[in-house]
């Protein structure tokens, strides 16, 4: 049986760079609360914060399976996109996309304010984002994405191989795009800071995975390995792992991706990494490689996907190193300081699983790889929705997660599609 919560082979590289954490407070014995939130990621934290703002007397319990910063919210690549990721140029949808972008932009501005007043440096910078292609499949995707941005009236800059080399230091890509609508951040620093800034009415329990949820009386009981907590209202904000608690099994699946981070590079090597002090690059094809240069002179590479389970990190490290050297062949002496994986919730149509499931039970899951800004927005709106406030029509704006076939057909379908897409994306890995 698959685990009901993530447990990773390696520490999160981002979190290992931060100050040491105190001993975790775990949920033990019996507790009662007004609201239980499963998952202390961006969605769960935003939901806790908003609920506490609207109902200051509420006693809120926030559960996480790992340490704050070690879980999935600290394991991403640190891209905070201000605009919806839409690759289709459908003019009939432009009004909807503009409304989505307005909500995301407002959420990003709140995150920027939070980072500015954080107890640690979150290294937040509006650096924009590059998208680049090495092969024809990637170039076709860039043309489509550029057309979308232009139709949406969003600024975009087209870059040649030589311009990319000047900015990010590699000739690997033949063409690229630059869009300013993106912040870069140290994700573990951000999530730890957001949790630390929660009001005192929110009790945070780490290393306390929810392993069972059941209806009791007029509410719910959430069980952890060492205790349980009862409440009239429960939010599931644990992404793909909500399905192991009985919600969304036919709508969501867990995908594992992998990242590696170098130590700070010496000046001689940094000279080969472009003039931008910090930059981030997303692949033109979704199965390509993501790259970042951090403010302290490190390189990050993220690539490869696994279905529902984590692969051997030692073998993954070799493939990530090969991807890095294809782009920066002069960095043969540069080693990785950290290699890690992270799970994200994917839905077939890219839409979220969001809203009320049963009386007192709500869910927000399916970030589809864009969970920092979008997850923060969805969490805030979920709290408002649960308190019967007027909220935007989420289904009309962001859609509803569509049905996926059961296992083993789902795994077989993924294997076939992934094989085809890996072949198509071979130039971009």
Automatic annotation (TrEMBL):
Keywords, ordered alphabetically: Oxidoreductase
InterPro entries: FAD-dep_OxRdtase, FAD/NAD-bd_sf
Gene Ontology terms, MF aspect: oxidoreductase activity
One cellular component term from this protein's GO annotations in UniProt: cytoplasm
Record-annotated FAD dependent oxidoreductase domain positions: 34-384
Protein name: FAD dependent oxidoreductase domain-containing protein
Taxonomic source organism: Woeseia oceani
């Amino acid at each position: 049986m698959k685990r009901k919560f993530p447990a990773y082979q390696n520490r999160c590289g981002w979190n290992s760079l931060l100050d040491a954490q105190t001993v975790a407070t775990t949920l033990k014995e019996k507790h009662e609360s007004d609201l239980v939130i499963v998952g202390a990621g961006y969605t769960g934290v935003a939901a806790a914060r908003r609920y506490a703002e609207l109902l200051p007397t509420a006693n809120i319990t926030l559960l996480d399976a790992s340490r704050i910063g070690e879980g999935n919210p600290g394991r991403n690549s640190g891209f905070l996109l201000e605009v919806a990721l839409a690759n289709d140029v459908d003019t009939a949808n432009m009004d909807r996309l503009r409304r989505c972008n307005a909500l995301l932009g407002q959420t990003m501005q709140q995150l920027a304010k939070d980072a500015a007043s954080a107890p640690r440096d979150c290294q937040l910078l509006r650096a924009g984002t590059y998208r680049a292609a090495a092969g024809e499949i990637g170039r076709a995707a860039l043309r489509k994405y550029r057309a979308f941005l232009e139709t949406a009236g969003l600024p975009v800059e087209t870059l040649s191989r030589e311009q990319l080399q000047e900015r990010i230091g590699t000739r690997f890509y033949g063409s690229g795009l630059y869009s300013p609508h993106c912040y870069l951040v140290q994700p573990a620093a951000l999530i730890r800071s957001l949790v630390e800034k929660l009001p005192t009415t929110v009790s945070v329990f780490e290393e306390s995975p929810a392993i069972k949820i059941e209806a009791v009386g007029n509410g719910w009981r959430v069980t952890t390995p060492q205790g349980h907590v009862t409440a009239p209202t429960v939010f599931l904000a644990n992404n793909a792992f909500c399905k192991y608690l009985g919600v969304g099994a036919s709508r969501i699946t867990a995908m594992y991706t992998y990242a590696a981070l170098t130590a700070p590079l010496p000046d001689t090597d940094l000279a080969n990494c472009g003039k931008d002090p910090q930059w981030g690059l997303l692949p033109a094809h979704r199965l390509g490689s993501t790259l970042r240069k951090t403010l302290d002179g490190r390189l990050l590479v993220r690539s490869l996907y696994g279905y529902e389970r984590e692969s051997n990190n030692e073998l993954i490290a070799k493939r990530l190193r090969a991807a890095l050297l294809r782009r920066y062949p002069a960095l043969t002496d540069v080693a990785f300081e950290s290699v890690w994986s992270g799970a994200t919730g994917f839905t077939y149509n890219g839409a979220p699983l969001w809203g009320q499931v049963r009386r007192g039970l709500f869910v927000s899951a399916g970030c589809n790889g864009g969970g920092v800004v979008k997850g923060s927005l969805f969490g805030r709106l979920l709290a408002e929705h649960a308190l019967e406030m007027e909220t935007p029509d989420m289904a009309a704006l962001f859609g509803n997660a569509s049905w996926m076939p059961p296992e083993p057909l789902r795994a077989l379908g993924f294997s076939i599609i992934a094989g085809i897409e890996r072949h198509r994306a071979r130039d971009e890995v």
